[in-house]
Amino acid sequence: MVWGNREQLGKGRRVPGGPVETGEELCVLRAGGSRSGVVGCCLGEPLGVLVTACLKCGADLQPVTATGLPPPPHTPSTMAVHLVRRCCWRHLGALVSAPSAVPASLLAPAGKVAMARALSQAPFASFHISSPSSWADGFSVKEQVEDSRNQDHKMIGELIETATSPQELFQLSVLHTLNSNEAALIITQLSRLAAEKKLETGSILQDHRFQQLISIMDSQISHVWNNTLVNLLRSLYSLGMDRSRREMQSVEQEVLWRLRRLTFRQLSSLAEALAIKQGKESKLLNEVIRKLELRWTELEGTRTVVALMGKIGHISPALMDRLEDKALELAEQFNPDDIRKVTLTLAYQNRRCVPLLRALSYHLIQKHPELSLNVLMDLIFAYGKLNFHQPQVFQKIATDLHPHVASMTPVEVTRCIRSFALLKWLSLPLFEAIAQYALDNAKQLSVSHLCSIILSFARLNFQPSSSEDFFNMVHEELQGQLASLEPHLLTDVVWSLCVLQQAKAPYLHCVLAPDFHTQIQGDESPKAQNLRLKLIHINAAAKLESPDYQGPFLPSEMLVAAEPAEERVTLLQSSLREALTRVLGSRENGRLDVRTRYGWQLDAEMVVNSENKPLPVKDFAAPHLLHSEGTKPLPPGARRVAFLRWEFPSFSNRSKDLLGRYVMARRHVQAAGFLVVDVPHYEFLELKLERQRVAYLKDKLNKARAEEMAS
Q1: What's the pTM?
Q2: Percent of the chain with pLDDT over 70
Q3: Can the peptide bond before residue 552 be classed as cis, meaning omega within 30 degrees of 0?
Q4: What is the per-residue DSSP string for 485-544?
Q5: Within 198-239, where are the H helices?
Q6: Taking residues 533-541, what's their average pLDDT?
Q7: With DSSP H G I counted as helix, E B as strand and the rest as coil, what are the percentages for the chain, rounded to 5?
Q8: What is the pLDDT of residue 596?
Q9: What's the half-sphere exposure (Cβ side, CA atoms, 13 Å) at 132?
Q10: What CA–CA distance (Å, rounded) separates 538 from 96?
Q11: Is the dihedral of CA 188, 189, 190, 196 positive or negative?
Q12: 77 — alpha (psi -120 to 50), left (phi > 0) or beta?
């Protein structure tokens, strides 16, 4: 070991202890990292000697040449200095944290407190760190080593974890001298106890001992470990601490400064808390989300993916795209509850990610034979809201739900049946069980629950096997309750009873009375127009299917349905129109796209004689139209024919049974005096040539006429 000043070393002069030659590289001990004062140079000294010298004087190692200038990088001396620095870390940890070590405060003289502080900080100074906050870099090796070796810290940590009341935690702050990290741990434990035991947080926040904990934490917040700091911020939000307080803002600012050094799990935990407490406008939350978007490849584990999708996905569509990709990758590892949470998240955010939904459906069928009631209910709700059709999943859910029906609550029953109705999936055993449930629990069902069941049955055109008993119960429960229903719900209920052919005169009178329908006259909103169309259907049911009903009816000006929004012409519609033009022969022999006074639209209308030859349609009276062009009655043997096309959405899921709406439309058209020719998509679109389609329509017409004559 040789000592000298910078001037001597720069001139290449000898100093006591060994030779120094110009151009020779030296390892310089610079006291406190300063650029002036005493410096030492070491040539050929053992590594332990250098480390001991560093620790004794709190010096920083810097390589220089005999000219006083830094040597080039990657030279032996430069690399040796870096090695010595790393060894200083290890020696310092052993000296400070060894169980047998004497506390530094006892070794230092009374007036050397500053020297002790410099001794602990000097090894850290050689790293590229700007502040002591970097001591807690990540919840990483340094924190874990300190946590495992510092017995006092471990003892206080165990006392904090085992505390069962706020008073025990406050007592710790009185009996022990705490550092900022321990104060933060106590605040976190206070929040946990308050949440678990549902304690009043106001009294905790106002306690003077809590204020002392806040002061201790705030005085050295840069020394709080990263994981503890994240939990601290979450705890302060949970306790309801005022965000305008300086200490609260200090914690938030410290977290903001450390974002780059937080682990991905800590970032996700922080984002979940911020999304709940602050919302989209939070500057801190936006920064956290930006970090998550940049570091999304660090995503690990299903729990983190599921939690972020549910709580953060709606804030950042870009992050949600990444989360969906990761969820697709981890789909095989999801348990039923994870699948439930992911599908619900997609449903609430209206994100119909088909590849992910298909993967979840596959693994649900293949790996999870038994599902709980909550999972079944949420899954069918999510599939219904997303309009995602997976028959195998629907069949499994319906089969698994069937044994639970008797023990379900009215809310669960109505939620279940509405989801199946939305998906157009009719499971006869399940619907029969629900009908029986309604009979057995009529007194527990509210009017709204009963209305939901009626609407669902009508959508799928389901008639229970105990139809008479069921509808007697419905009429009994609804009696006297109609006036209390909201107008749109009342209209839907009466319309549904018309679909099921169970609408009695009191129901018809309620919605066809002038004081009811005058409420929507002049209202051009889509909701009002939909209500108006249903009233026209109810009016048609009253005229065509309820001979005992004597009125009132809707006035003629109400029967003009609003023009529907321009819709995309389907393949079935365009190809059918071309074929019908060939069948009619000329425009005088029929009408296309006929709007009737009953609220239903015909694809084509024609009049045929007894030999199925078309007649000029404009010559004859047309009571189904608001304004008839002709006045002649039909000649003997002649029939009025209506062509009705049935698209794919007109049928129940994976079935050839029409939905209730279209069953009622067909009944009304028949009751209006038409011979109905059905044109379902699954038959007509199989024919590729126009001559085949024309022949198909003529054959269907002949068969319909033959069936009518036979009956």
Answers
A1: 0.72
A2: 78
A3: yes
A4: S-HHHHHHHHHHHHHTT---HHHHHHHHSHHHHTTSTT--SHHHHHHHHHHHHHHHHHHH
A5: 201-206, 208-219, 226-239
A6: 95
A7: 60, 10, 30
A8: 93
A9: 12
A10: 87
A11: positive
A12: alpha
Quick one: pLDDT at residue 75? Answer: 54
Separation between Cα atoms, residue 27 and residue 32, nearest integer Å? 15
| C-alpha span between 89 and 92 (Å, rounded) | 5
Is residue 339 within 8 A of residue 304, CB to CB? The reply is no
Comparing 503-512, 554-563, 609-618, 650-659, which segment has the lowest mean pLDDT?
Answer: 554-563
DSSP result, 581-608: HHHH-SGGGEEEEEEPTTS-EEEEEEEE
- The answer to whether 92 and 54 are in contact (CB under 8 A) is no
Neighbour count for residue 618 (Cβ, 10 Å): 16
Mean pLDDT of 659-688: 95
- C-alpha 11/C-alpha 584 separation (Å) is 115
Nearest residue to 517 (alpha-carbon basis) of 496, 547, 539, 541: 539
Per-residue pLDDT tens for 54-104? 444 444 445 544 444 455 555 555 555 555 555 544 443 443 333 333 333
Q: What is the DSSP string of 286-312?
A: HHHHHHHHHTGGG--SHHHHHHHHHHT
Question: Which is nearest to 255 in space by CA: 207, 288, 293?
Answer: 288
Half-sphere exposure of 424 (CA within 13 A, CB side): 18
Instruction: Please name the amino acid found at residue 74.
Output: H
Question: How many CB atoms neighbour CB 92 within 10 A?
Answer: 18
Q: Which ranges of 103-200 would DSSP assign to H, the alpha helix?
A: 104-107, 113-125, 141-149, 151-162, 166-175, 180-197
| Residue pair 28/39 in contact by the 8 Å Cβ criterion | yes
Classified as helix, coil or strand, 455 is helix
Nearest to 183 by CA among 228, 129, 122, 226: 228
Q: Quick check: 604 and 644 in contact, CB under 8 A?
A: no
- Using CA atoms of 176, 179, 181, 182 in order, give the dihedral in degrees to the nearest 10: 0
CB 1 within 8 A of CB 27: no
Which has the closest alpha carbon to 655: 500, 423, 387, 418?
423
Tokens, residue 465: 């096997």
d(CA 58, CA 478): 89
Give the C-alpha distances (Å, rounded to integers) separating 433 from 372, 386, 413, 590.
19, 26, 10, 48
Average pLDDT, the chain: 80
188 pLDDT more than 60 = yes
Q: In whole angstroms, give the CA distance from residue 238 to residue 195.
A: 8
Phi, psi dihedral angles at 262 (to 5 degrees): -80, 150
Q: How many CB atoms lie within 10 A of CB 339?
A: 26
d(CA 437, CA 645): 37
Instruction: Indicate the SS3 state at residue 478.
Output: helix
